[in-house]
Amino acid sequence: MSAAIQSGGDLPLRSMLFIPGDSEKKLAKVAECGADAVILDLEDAVAPENKAKARALVADFLKQTPRGKRPTQYWVRVNPFDTGLTLDDLAAIGPGAPDGIFQPKTDGPEDVRRLSHYLDMIEAANGIEPGSIRILPVATETPKAPFTLGDFASAGLERLSGLTWGAEDLSTAVGASTNLDETGQWAFTYKMVRSLCLVAAHASGVQALDTLYVNFRDDEGLRASCRAARAEGFTGRIAIHPAQVAGINESFTPSKEEIDHAQRILDAFAANPGAGTVGLDGKMIDIPHKKQAERVLAQAQAFATS
Ligand code: COA
Ligand code: MG
Fold it and tell me: CB of 34 closer than 6 A to ligand 1?
């Protein structure tokens, strides 16, 4: 069974769709978007003059549909600590019992711990089940962050639902004029933090979400990129447009062929009790293949019931 799927009893998040918190029109699309979660944004999708409006709209939106009646998980991206807006954001949205907080620009686990303490109080003040507001930090957006990624595994953060990464804020922070190389792929620094995020998530037993795919009209490109990310071990992805949700969900759900193959691997081991290696279709299969097959079946089961 996959630790990523089991973590904290969290439902698996293949797709998390960003919705700018100041847009009534886009908020109205939440019920039909099909994403495993939406991220109601109070941060960078909202201009400074609209922050107060977004906060009020999102607070209202959360209250309109209480937990248990929501078509999907309602997460909120609050503003980071150095803006001085975080506490006001949390105080406004807390009574609406968000399912999780998407935490931008974290320097590392200590920022998540600080947010977690605030949520302890929010839950107590609003009669919300303790520990039920989950946290998913963007763990690579500041120059300090890459150096603390390895600390998540031992930080004991019970609200931690997953880790994701981002390239835009990091490249701004280091004064880079681009985050791409000459072939249009991520430049080395961003490949590095992406990989560190992936292994840090698995080291912590939580979900690993790949960053957004910016060209939202390119469905084929998105799907190819998602398939590659899943093959590397990512469990889901951020979406910025409703048109991306189906491609992401399908790419991060095990296919029928994968499920059948995984089942055949487990059957082969079951037919050879005590064996550490077995042959299947003329190929050697050993314990890592068995673990991967179990993970695929656990994912398939989780998505079938989510
Ligand atoms: N959530 C909900 N609805 C969305 C949406 C989103 N993220 N993005 C687009 N839509 C809606 C539009 O309102 C439009 O609705 P309509 O058909 O009723 O007019 C429909 O989907 C088609 O939108 P489209 O014209 O293709 O895109 P756009 O030009 O209106 O918007 C973006 C493009 C990028 C501005 C928009 O997708 C967006 O706001 N994305 C999220 C950005 C964000 O939150 N970024 C922060 C994280 S990096
Ligand atoms: Mg950002």
Answer: no
Q: Whose atoms come closest to the Cα of 42: which ligand? A: 1
Average pLDDT over residues 245-260: 96
Of 305 and 302, the structure prediction assigns the larger pLDDT to 302
CATH 3.20.20.60 region(s) of the chain? 7-253
CA–centroid distance, 185 to ligand 1, in Å, is 25
Euclidean distance between CA atoms 38 and 16, whole angstroms: 5
Dihedral angle at the C-alpha atoms of 166, 291, 158, 305, nearest 10 degrees? 90
The CATH number for 7-253, chosen from 3.30.450.20, 3.40.50.2300, 3.40.50.720, 3.20.20.60, is 3.20.20.60
Give, to the nearest 10 degrees, the angle between helix 51-64 and helix 86-93: 30
The pLDDT tens digits for 155-210 are 999 999 999 999 999 999 999 999 999 999 999 999 999 999 999 999 999 999 99
Q: What whole-number distance in Å separates Cα of residue 17 and Cα of residue 239?
A: 5
Q: Does ligand 1 have an atom closer than 6 angstroms to the CB of 203? A: no
The ligand whose atoms approach the alpha carbon of 168 most closely is 2
Q: Report residue 256's pLDDT band, with 50, 70 and 90 as the boundaries.
A: very high
Cβ of 29 less than 6 Å from ligand 1: yes
Tokens of 296: 């695929």
Cα 28 to averaged position of ligand 1 atoms, centre (Å): 11
**Greater pLDDT, 243 or 301:** 243
